[in-house]
Amino acid sequence: MCLFWMKTAQVWRLGVGDMPILPGSRHRPPLKRPVWIIVLVSLVSIFLICAYVYPPRSSTACYMFSSNGCKVFADWLPPAPAREYSDEEIASHVVIKDILNMPPLESKNPKIAFMFLTPGTLPFEKLWDKFFYGHDGRFSVYVHASREKPTHVSRHFINQDIRSDKVVWGKISMVDAEKRLLANALKDPDNQHFVLLSDSCVPLHDFDYVYNYLMYTNISFIDSFEDPGPHGSGRYSEHMLPEVEKKDFRKGAQWFSMKRQHALVVLADSLYFSKFREYCRPGMEQGRNCYSDEHYLPTFFYMIDPGGIANWSVTHVDWSEGKWHPKSYRAKDVTYELLKNITSIDESVHVTSDVRKEVQIRPCLWNGMKRPCYLFARKFYPETLGVLMQLFSNYTTV
Ligand SMILES: *[C@@H]1O[C@H](CO)[C@@H](O)[C@H](O)[C@H]1NC(C)=O
Ligand SMILES: *[C@@H]1O[C@H](CO)[C@@H](O)[C@H](O)[C@H]1NC(C)=O
Ligand SMILES: *[C@@H]1O[C@H](CO)[C@@H](O)[C@H](O)[C@H]1NC(C)=O
Ligand SMILES: *[C@@H]1O[C@H](CO)[C@@H](O)[C@H](O)[C@H]1NC(C)=O
Question: Which GO cellular component terms, listed alphabetically, does the Swiss-Prot or TrEMBL entry include (predicted)?
């Protein structure tokens, strides 16, 4: 209602002294002077009241108010105040800002934390054992087994199970498990970088390559892109307002790797996390589904530290078949050529889920240089273990 009045009032304001060109005015009976002055004065007053009570808040609002953009208003209205933040938001912003500005924790013995999220026994423990061999002291391992107690075959994995809880696919319990892994891994001050892996993930390079790739950069590899389609912003709920706006809603694969400050920020956040816990879940209103593990971290980091994330994940997965699940490799698929193909990819690809199916291709830049994007890959069936063990020393040789 105010919108309508403001529009009308603006036409009047611009048209003052130029009455005859107002649309439609030619066919109206001429108003007597006192009448149109009263009408004009009241319209202008309503407009001013409206403009005062509902100042244009964003550029979208400006477009709604005036097709000339905001200029007309900006010249004579006081600057629009930012939204008033709640106590929780103010507290959250200062905590996040301070953590992000903290210098990295000095460590004489910096380590990478490998955090495995698995239902039970890890099928590729032997392969990882080969990967870790000879690098004791430069990594730590954490296993969150959500369904059954795993049996371990590698000494690097024995006694590395953390207390776990049930994980339901697509539900917030998935993010809870990720946070549980981060909390346990953060207890060791030597851990500087935190990699989340699944039971179907395998390494694509040798340990030194992975260590240097993750340690000698100051960004986190968190996948994040804007998907205006039904499987992206279509999952957004306005209940997340005012803290999370639709324009900030992002999507990305859950398999992250992050630096220590980012891991701390994730544990420090309860405000944004609670928004996703309540309003981004499977089976919400009108049968809409939202999956927090695909949206919480991509959105959160886009909002708080967009320049601090790479926007792609170092774990490769092949969605090119366009099915509900990514391609899973069988033993017969795994060849030297396949692994070389994956390790040579140096551009990240995102495809939107709207009708346009827009393909966004970006070079993978590591400290400003174009580099292969991926350190790990999924999804591999357990039957591929043998062939991967045979090929490992070959395909990881650069
Ligand atoms: C990372 O380091 C580079 C140079 O060393 C610096 O320009 C950049 O601002 C840093 N980025 C972050 C997110 O700290
Ligand atoms: C990631 O994307 C954000 C927003 O789209 C951008 O500001 C940021 O620079 C990107 N990060 C890198 C490392 O390019
Ligand atoms: C490897 O990549 C080449 C060129 O893109 C392609 O022709 C070939 O089929 C790929 N091989 C495998 C095993 O994926
Ligand atoms: C790895 O295997 C391929 C194909 O079997 C072979 O051509 C290549 O020479 C091998 N490379 C190394 C470093 O052993």
Answer: membrane
Measured distance CA(203)–CA(197) in Å, rounded: 10
For ligand 4, atom 5, the nearest C-alpha belongs to 336
The token pair at 27 is 């066919």
Beta pairing partners, 203: 376
What residues are paired with 316 via a beta bridge? 377
Q: For the residues of 286-301, what is the DSSP string, one character each?
A: GG----HHHHHHHHHH
Which ligand 1 atom is nearest residue 307's CA?
13
Phi, psi of 125 (to 5 degrees): -55, -40
Determine the Cα–Cα distance for residues 330 and 383; give it in Å rounded to an integer.
Answer: 7
CA of 394 to the centre of ligand 4 (A): 6
| Each residue's pLDDT tens digit, 99-151 | 999 888 788 999 999 999 999 999 999 999 999 999 999 999 999 999 999 99
Domains of the chain, CATH where assigned: 87-313 (3.90.550)
Residue 357 phi, psi (nearest 5): 45, 50
Mutate to test the pocket of ligand 1, among 193, 218, 220, 259 (most ligand atoms within 8 A of CB): 218
Ligand 2 atom nearest the C-alpha of 225 is 5
Instruction: Tell me how far CA of residue 229 lies from CA of 58, 239, 396, in angstroms.
Output: 23, 19, 37
Ligand 2 site, residue 306, Cβ cutoff 6 A: yes
CA distances, 134 to each of 138, 193, 207 (Å)? 10, 19, 9
Report the distance separating Cα 145 and Cα 161, nearest Å: 7
Ligand number, closest to the Cα atom of 390: 4
pTM of the model: 0.79
Three-state SS for 196?
strand
* 67 exposure class (CB count in 10 Å sphere: 0-12, 13-18, 19+): exposed
Distance CA 281, CA 248 (A): 18
